[in-house]
Specification:
This protein has 335 residues and is an alpha+beta fold. The protein has helices at 5-12, 22-42, 44-53, 66-79, 101-104, 146-149, 218-228, 246-256, 275-288, 320-332, and strands at 84-89, 96-97, 108-116, 127-135, 156-164, 168-173, 178-184, 189-194, 205-207, 239-240, 259-262, 292-294, 315-318. The protein has two domains: 5-194, Fructose-1,6-Bisphosphatase, subunit A, domain 1 (Fructose-1,6-Bisphosphatase, Chain A, domain 1, 2-Layer Sandwich); 205-330, D-Maltodextrin-Binding Protein, domain 2.
Length: 335
């Protein structure tokens, strides 16, 4: 029997005895925006060809870069959801406050990376969308405030991602496990395909941009060498896999077992990835699937107190034993 995303979300509402269906509707709106973005992603190559002759599309609008397009679609969809009073987006310097009376009564805010892995768009490699949902702490009935977004990851009520890959999937959690839905293009519905995802406690994949090796901290360099050593008992050497889209790298490791690392480097003391809409949602998902996420310095990602919207954090995420091992190298300068 096919269970669609909408049916599943409604079914799960009973897990939240006091819920009035707001979160349900919000998640549904995210699913709708994802389908619209998916439609554009699928014809990205064609749009470029058409764009060569004339940069205006048939509607007389300028062709937008896909990440701006995705940003607009998610903002519009959330604006009309009536459950969300504002969003923080990678594409917007400040928070976007929804001003309608309806939106001001929304209880939730959303932090979003509308298009993750932008450098892969033009070369037909998997990209994604990442989102985190929080209950606002400012007063309902008023416009959203920065403090609504600067909450620890432990305060997330839901988080998820969409991967536009060989198929399109939405994976999300509301704190009761992780479930994955594959878009069936013939009926235009996300259908439950990966129930209660559990990340293997250990895997044999390590994912890190080794081009930056020379700039990595000593402990990370040593951990990489550890991954490459021969030890059949611990399945080493591990396999190196790095796509350059966090969503795609994370998704593969979630299903197969592995570790993804974006450490601090000599030139970027907080690494590259953004805490609010990249690290925190992935941390919530990985923990809900049995894995682990830290800042590579002994602190759980979801315990970090954000100070600014686009704050970055080093990120170690994946199979529990592998993240613990990598952390040991940092603690003890092992190797
Ligand atoms: P975005 O496209 O949203 O800016 O994110 C890109 C991020 C992330 O997806 C990926 O893991 C990382 O950048 C790759 O960075 P490097 O090219 O430095 O490895
Ligand atoms: Mn990103
Ligand atoms: Mn992005």
């Amino acid at each position: 029997m096919i269970i669609t995303l909408n049916e599943f979300i409604i079914e799960r509402q009973v897990d939240f005895p006091y819920a009035k269906g707001e979160l349900t509707r919000l998640l549904n709106h995210i699913g709708i925006a994802a389908k619209i973005v998916n439609r554009e992603v699928n014809k990205a190559g064609l749009v470029d060809i058409l764009g060569i002759a004339d940069t205006n599309n048939v509607h007389g609008e300028q062709q937008k870069k896909l990440d701006v397009f995705a940003d607009e679609k998610f903002i519009n969809s959330l604006k009309s959801s009536a459950e969300c009073c504002g969003i923080a987006s990678e594409e917007e310097q400040n928070i976007v406050k929804f001003k309608s009376e309806m939106a001001k009564n929304g209880k939730y805010v959303v932090a979003i990376d509308p298009l993750d892995g932008s450098s892969n768009i033009d070369v037909n490699v998997s990209i994604g969308t990442i989102f985190a949902i929080y209950r606002r702490i400012s007063q309902v009935g008023h416009i959203a405030e920065d403090k609504d977004f600067l909450q620890e990851g432990t305060k997330q009520v839901a988080a998820g991602y969409i991967i536009y890959g060989s198929s399109t999937m939405m994976v999300y959690t509301t704190g009761r496990g992780v479930n994955g839905f594959t878009l069936d293009p013939s009926i235009g519905e996300f259908c439950l395909s990966h129930k209660n995802i559990k990340i293997p406690v250990s895997g044999n994949i390590y994912s890190i941009n080794e081009g930056n090796y020379i700039k990595f901290p000593k402990a990370v360099k040593k951990y990489i060498k550890y991954c490459q050593e021969n030890d059949p008992q611990t399945n080493r050497p591990y396999t190196s896999r790095y796509i350059g889209s966090l969503v795609a790298d994370f998704h593969r490791n979630l299903l197969k077992g592995g570790i993804f690392i974006y450490p601090k480097t000599a030139s970027a003391k907080n690494g590259k990835l953004r805490l609010l809409y990249e690290c925190n949602p992935m941390a919530f998902i990985v923990e809900q699937s049995g894995g682990m996420a830290t800042d590579g310095n002994g602190t759980r990602i979801m315990d970090l107190k954000p100070k600014s919207l686009h704050q970055r954090s080093p990120f170690f995420v994946g199979s529990r034993n592998m993240v613990m091992k990598a952390e040991e190298f940092v603690e003890n300068k092992l190797g």
